[in-house]
């Protein structure tokens, strides 16, 4: 009698563990879908900014997110299959994917730690150079649009501050019509609003 009761108790615990593992893997799958969605959104919605970067780090990061999200989704699916079918092969693939995900996260974390400050400094320097040399120049429409959008999206003006624009090829040309900053620096954009860099109308926050 006691042995029968113990077997029933073990079966009940096994069933509970299976359900918990299934729920965990389902949430794992949802998390992977979310990560993949962020990667896709980054590529689509922020693609304008690619022309401002000195390297392909931004695009590569987005592709890594998509790859990692896809891998997590596959792992979650394998985990659910392993729970339902109780197949050893599925479990082996499941734990192999978990190990791969762990290694990817470890490498990504180390790279982010090592290169964060370097990339930040490189981006700020390249952004300032791009703004001063390429903004509103012939054949640089993508860069011009990207800078305008960047300043409006992040409510900023210049790479460090609005004074960066005094060295701009555009600002020092006749096309600027005596503007001191581009109109995209204005809090409220109106034609030729960049004629004066007053704090009441010009963003003073830096980009980088």
Automatic annotation (TrEMBL):
UniProt topology in membrane: Multi-pass membrane protein
InterPro entries in UniProt: Tetraspanin/Peripherin, Tetraspanin_animals, Tetraspanin_EC2_sf
SUPFAM superfamilies: Tetraspanin
Transmembrane segments: 20-44, 64-84, 91-116
Keywords: Membrane, Transmembrane, Transmembrane helix
CDD domains linked to this entry: CD151_like_LEL
GO cellular component terms listed in the entry, alphabetical order: plasma membrane
Compartments it resides in: Membrane
Record-stated family: Belongs to the tetraspanin (TM4SF) family.
Record protein name field: Tetraspanin
Organism from which the protein derives: Atractosteus spatula
Gene: Tspan11_0
